[in-house]
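Section: Multi-chain targets

For targets with more than one molecule, the full set of components is provided together so that the structure can be written out for the assembly as a whole rather than chain by chain. Components appear in the order listed by the source. The example entry contains two components.
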Amino acid sequence: MRIAVDMLGGDHAPHELVAGVAQALLSGDFTADELLLVGPQDIIAAQFAELGVSDVPEILHTTDVIAGHEKPIDGIRRKPDASILKAVAACRDGLAGGIVAFGNTGAAVAASTIGLGLLPGVRRPGIAVTLVGANGKFVLLDAGANPNPKPEHLFHYALMGAAFSRDMHQHSNPTIGLLNIGGEASKGSPLLQEVHKRLEDSGLDFVGNVEGNQLFNGVADVLVTDGFVGNMVLKVVEGFGERVIQVGHERGHDDQMKDVVRQLLGVSDFSEAGGANLLGVNGVVLVGHGRSKASAVLPALEIVRAEIKTGVNQHIVESLQAHTENV
Amino acid sequence: MRIAVDMLGGDHAPHELVAGVAQALLSGDFTADELLLVGPQDIIAAQFAELGVSDVPEILHTTDVIAGHEKPIDGIRRKPDASILKAVAACRDGLAGGIVAFGNTGAAVAASTIGLGLLPGVRRPGIAVTLVGANGKFVLLDAGANPNPKPEHLFHYALMGAAFSRDMHQHSNPTIGLLNIGGEASKGSPLLQEVHKRLEDSGLDFVGNVEGNQLFNGVADVLVTDGFVGNMVLKVVEGFGERVIQVGHERGHDDQMKDVVRQLLGVSDFSEAGGANLLGVNGVVLVGHGRSKASAVLPALEIVRAEIKTGVNQHIVESLQAHTENV
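Its structure, encoded as tokens over all components, is:
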């Protein structure tokens, strides 16, 4: 199945994205028939010619884009030909098996949810971000799709995250943690207390509440939280990491800082690599950072290809089914 | 006015705390008559003798302590002679003008709130943490005293934080930001939207919503958030900083990482320096990290002395009064 790439999303579109796709093709990591590009036909074709790409993927032409500052729902209503909507439609119609979308995250979430629908049993999609801790890769979700969740949503995020961790991070029996501000089951809001109870009764390998300072210490492979806290935590880490690099630079030990921070932010150092996975929608959707440059494209494509191949979505459906029957 | 020090709080009490007080005395930064120590008379006196401290501060004897893992309210009920309660009582009775408390944060907050009462106009105390961004020191509050605040509490935190920033960080007209997951006034919960409006109408130098990635970039001198998010953010940064140091160590560039992370965490690198300020109670209370070692004592004492001298609490009361009259 092809992967549809929204070539108009993000701060550096389409130039950096075309350069990134060109790299993926010229390196032999991807063939043209694995990709479906959504964006301005002429500009993309001209840049490919310049870069020496002869085997050009099919291009679905459009020049409309929902910009980063636009309200997702407004953009979706006003711009039926927006690149993200065309990419989603291509996926819905079977022309592609997955989507890579840089740019307006809210628009990608809304367009995917509306256009692809949700997987059976799922009530709300969640954004899963991969970071690197003392025990290797771990996934944090939700990172912003659902700031005000119900207990069931968070419980489903645990199941989705576990399926993702098994298939994509090779944790065969992933440990699940609930982000909270204290270790005891009685800590946090009534919402968190209820989710704590459900996870304890779930048969999952639940390690209990995880505090902020434990996030990177490998205590859990899947960290569950609401979209407000998840988004805040992710962005704080991103900003703090940038500041570490800056201060390191001012002090003359530039590269060391970058290396270390990049290792920890893993594929979520969005401007250079990968992106976040939208889980729960009936399709494979990777949302890249709006600041993504060319080097982010190949990792993003590889993640989507792996998700399709391992069948994460099928495993999510099976897991939700099993845990719903058990209740 | 003397500063009461709880010599039994934290993981390394009383040994490291006695060593820290000894350093403060032997360096000449503090005199014995500026301090009132609360803890085991014999042990403290013996260690002072060993360390060559001849001019020993008065010691209020007790051997009881509310441990880090104890529920604050249980500890307060069961241990009337607990060191934190004796320190608070000394402050209430005019024997001291401020308190340094390492150890159980919840117990320090509860004991201070019950024992000292709140400043006129204040409804809830808040924990203010000092961090260092691109524009120098900034204060983040609440960092955990009030996880489920009302709009008024957050508005008061802005006023308290501004008074603290003026007096303690020398920002004469501090900028105020509201931690949120998007820049627009319509972002976040109804709670945050209401606080946004109150801050806009307040006459304070309100810069609007601040996202997580902007926390360290100097955009605001005072960052307002609820105690759940504030505690999470603080601990995430602490844990991420530790992980940066660890990975740096594994890669052989140890000291650079430590320097940079310490600079950013400022006085809130709790195990080595300073602590968090409990604002809103009728007294000056600094809550140190439970992991504090000797080197944390002098900075903590200096902060409390400065808070007493600059009259932060008086300025908080005046600010609340002015802003209540304006409404």
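Chain A has two domains: 1-122+280-309, 128-266.
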